[in-house]
Specification:
about 180 residues, globular, five-stranded mixed sheet, alpha/beta, Purple Acid Phosphatase, chain A, domain 2, six-stranded mixed sheet, about 30% strand
């Protein structure tokens, strides 16, 4: 399974539409996972022209923190999603405290709360900082922001690709849209 990863699009605050390059990079994916701060449902509809979409509810999607926009109720959006692909447990949420910010114990409790136990792969956003790292057995992927990388305007953003192959082999990469 090949999964397109995107987060923190902040449309229409950041820009009016997803960058065209997102559609090129995601061509042929089996699923798109949006890690929150979508802001408007049409972003999910545009991504759904590529492949089925699931999204995490971001802090801005609820109109919190002074954000003007709010997602309408949509079955594709939840606080967290859990998928099992080829025996690999993949979780999607907007933000979890990671061990580099708090502790391993807090990270594990957050995974228990959101996903009912440890994950093999966690996809999350929120920081607008792209990266792939490992905490224990969990591969953590943040695709960054497709429209506001590092909270900068008019700079090419980033997305990610997660591949899960037969037998549970996992590879991930972050792709610069520039």
């Amino acid at each position: 399974m090949r999964i397109g990863l995107i987060s923190d699009t902040h449309i229409p605050e950041a820009c009016e539409h997803l960058p065209a390059r997102v559609f090129e990079v995601f061509r042929g994916v089996d699923l798109v996972m949006h890690a929150g701060d979508v802001y408007v449902n049409r972003v999910l509809d545009e991504l759904a022209t590529i492949a089925p979409v699931i999204a995490a509810l971001g802090n801005g999607d609820e109109g919190l923190d002074g954000h003007r926009f709010r997602l309408e109720i949509d079955d594709r959006v939840r606080p967290a999603h859990l998928l099992t692909v080829e025996g690999v447990r993949v979780g999607l949420t907007h933000a979890l405290p990671t061990p580099d910010e708090t502790s391993e114990a807090v990270f594990q409790r957050a995974m228990d709360t959101h996903f009912g136990g440890p994950l093999d792969v966690l996809v999350m956003g929120h920081s607008h900082l792209e990266g792939i790292t490992r905490f224990g057995r969990t591969l953590v992927i943040n695709p960054g922001s497709a429209t506001l990388p590092h909270n900068l305007v008019d700079v090419p953003g980033t997305v990610g690709i997660l591949e899960i192959q037969a037998g549970g082999r996992v590879t991930a990469e972050v792709i610069n849209l520039g």
